[in-house]
Automatic annotation (TrEMBL):
Keyword NADP annotated: no
PANTHER family noted in UniProt: ABC-TYPE DIPEPTIDE/OLIGOPEPTIDE TRANSPORT SYSTEM, ATPASE COMPONENT, ABC-TYPE DIPEPTIDE_OLIGOPEPTIDE TRANSPORT SYSTEM, ATPASE COMPONENT
Pfam families: ABC_tran, oligo_HPY
Protein name in the entry: ATP-binding cassette domain-containing protein
Gene Ontology biological process terms from the UniProt entry: peptide transport
InterPro entries for this protein: AAA+_ATPase, ABC_transporter-like_ATP-bd, ABC_transporter-like_CS, Oligopep_ABC_C, P-loop_NTPase
Species of origin: Nonomuraea turkmeniaca
Domain ABC transporter residues, every copy: 2-244
Keyword list, A-Z: ATP-binding, Nucleotide-binding, Transport
Amino acid sequence: MLRLDDVTKEFRIGAFGGKTVAAVRSVSFDVVPGEVVSLIGESGSGKSTIGRMILGLNSVTSGAITFDGRPVRGAKEYYRHVQGIFQDPFSSFNPVFKADRVFAMIKQSYYPAVPEQEWAERVRSALRDVRLNPDQVLGKYPHQLSGGQLQRLLIARALLLDIKLLVADEITSMLDASTRIDVLNLLAELKTRGLGVLYITHDLSLGNYLAERTVVLRKGGVVEMGLTDKVFGDPLHPYTRELLSAVPRLHEEWGDAAAVDTCLYHERGAAEGLLEAEPGHFVACAQLESC
Ligand SMILES: Nc1ncnc2c1ncn2[C@@H]1O[C@H](COP(=O)(O)OP(=O)(O)OP(=O)(O)O)[C@@H](O)[C@H]1O
């Protein structure tokens, strides 16, 4: 369904854009229907940039992102199948309009011919799907709803489209613990209906909770990826091990603690790219600076 092949993103920085920073470096992975893939890494590791490229909000410097075999284009038809939800649900709503205006905009863009009565029933049904009581949320302004209710409204909006892939970027980080679990359970339920989810998080425990596969990013590059059980149960890269043992420090800047002098996988081919150390479990060379 979604494929990233050798994707790199460089941003121009500096007063005249004369310098570049590589936010994402040669990243390849895929997401298939009915699967949650979690993208984890510390702050600044490139997670959101990957999400934004998939959503067509940032261009790709080199490599390719394809959806159902076709290059990603930020076009209306693409957004029928691929939607993004972000950390701060309040920023997705215009405070001067009632929150359900997001549904009116979907109707206007994608279903102008659907009669009002039928549309209203579809909206109510989508709201019930995300466990919201339509009578309690329709007609309200964003400030009259909680963060959890607004995140669910956004998921309901996505469900009204023919959505196949949801890019969920830190969507639970502003929610309290019990609402967070509710939203995660909702995503788990949606994946059983065939939805693919790219779950971007710096919270390892949440990624572990939901995802079949996990991709670990460091400084824009994948250092390890594979089945979540393998990555969490038998982490091969020192950086992954450091992440797993240092959860409270995840918001720190990039560190060099993971760089090591010798790497078990260097001679086995990891120096040339990700090495499949065991079936479905890939690791990068840990001598990062020298590889
Ligand atoms: N528009 C931009 N211009 C220049 N640099 C950028 C831009 N967007 C992101 N970056 C840089 O790219 C790197 C990756 O940023 P990104 O937001 O993707 O990281 P992240 O892993 O999502 O971090 P966080 O968890 O804090 O959101 C960072 O060094 C960031 O400063």
